[in-house]
Amino acid sequence: MEKFDVIIVGGGPAGLICAERLSKSQLSVLLLEKDDVFGDKVCAGGLTRKDLAILDIPDEIIGHKVHHTSLHSPARFNHTESPDPMVVTIDRKQLGAWQRSLLEGTSVTVMHNTRVAEVRKKSVMLDNGDEIGYSSLVGADGYASLVRRYLKLPQEKRIIGIQYMVPEKEQDTELKVFLDSRYFNAWYGWIFPHKDKISVGCGCDPRYYSGKRLKKNFHKWLDKMQIDISNATYESAPISYDYRGLRFDNIYLVGDAAGIASGLTGEGVYQSLVSGIEVAGYIMGQDEESDDLKAVLRYNRIQEKIMMFLIRIGPLRKIVFELIIMMMRNKRFKNRVNNGFS
What does pTM read for this prediction? Predict the structure, then answer.
């Protein structure tokens, strides 16, 4: 039986950056990706300045640099303009391909179109019947993580995200966020500009607001906004925010498998990158949690508390949303919100 020091299951942002960091060690590393492409996921495709501080992404794979953002409620809106991009939008397949290219010429062995069928105590079984041993195993295999299931960790907290990718000839360069509880309850709707299309979507936790109702209200909102989806592509996917830790003896979880996304915004790329770097550090001998991970977990806890507050106040949330827009007129408050997000 072939054996590696580390097997990483999944080639999304977390698994790829974990492999990249481990490639600088003397460890033998195997990255397994079940699909033909890397990093493909239903996602609005936004990367914040926090992501760009970790990933030195070349301009040619950036779809759009967002300098203008606006926050809307039913009665008012607030506009923000920044000399530096607050967000860039990107195709997740292109991001995955670029991250994969960083492993070229390293000692990391990469296998795609390779599905793990079973996780065992010291090995994984592939769907072709091959068995490969490991000393450390990293589950970077997304929401329906086989590694997480092997650890018997529940997956209770999740966001259901739905969106349309709408072709756009006349490009609107502004990122727009809509706080409207009539349609989105405690969450929000978005319009993300891409190179030749826009992502229009929303999300919710189905434990508190049914996905069926969200989808119905989303289509009402699309009609109100006069957004033509006749040639659009519909996409939907779950996002986990059920975080239970990253390390479990010699088995680790990162990204969506670890449930490290925000329950309020669904933001998860930055959290995934931090978790991938963190786990690489653990495997190479790091003992304590990094300041970056502590900050991510603190940010997620704050986001969840805000989400639960908005859920509990019911009809009063529309007043809170209007107050938020009004408070965004205060420069100090606006900078705090924008810096916290981006």
Answer: 0.93
